[in-house]
Amino acid sequence: MTAKIKPLKDENVGRFVNNGRARQKEFNRRVKDAAWGKFSSVLGHKCLKNGIRFIQVPPEHTTTTCFKCGHKSEDNVLKDVFTCVNCLHQAHIDLNAAQNTSKLGEKMFHELFVVKV
Ligand SMILES: [Zn+2]
């Protein structure tokens, strides 16, 4: 369903021709987005049905933001290692992103559900 299309070379001309790869790539992206959308929708419904609060956290900048000091930069990421150029905090890129997501989720939870006195 989301297989990669191989390059198509025209042997007579000696160059590559349009094989619809860009179109297929866009289609694959939409299929994957739809799958996550469906998963999220079902999970939200199940949580609601069982009295569990469900919060969706926007993923933007979670991989490039330092969990410790909050500094945001593309320079913080090198392959799968996160190293903050501001405070030198180091972690695996996925761990740092997960911690940022968790922190943001807690913040959103407090803003939405915790009553301020
Ligand atoms: Zn930092």
Task: Explain what the structure shows.
The mean pLDDT is about 90. This protein has 2 domains: about 55 residues; about 60 residues, no CATH class. About 10% of the residues are buried. The protein is α+β, with helices and mostly antiparallel strands and about 120 residues long. Helices cover about 45% and strands about 10% of the residues. It is built from 2 helices and 5 strands. Bound molecules: zinc ion. Zinc ion (ZN) binds next to loops.
Count of helix runs: 2
Number of domains: 2
Number of strands: 5
Oligomer: single chain
Distance between the termini: 53 Å
**How do the strands line up in the largest sheet?**
3-4-5
Q: What small molecules does this complex bind?
A: zinc ion
Structural class: alpha+beta
Basic shape: flat
Helix content estimate: 40-55%
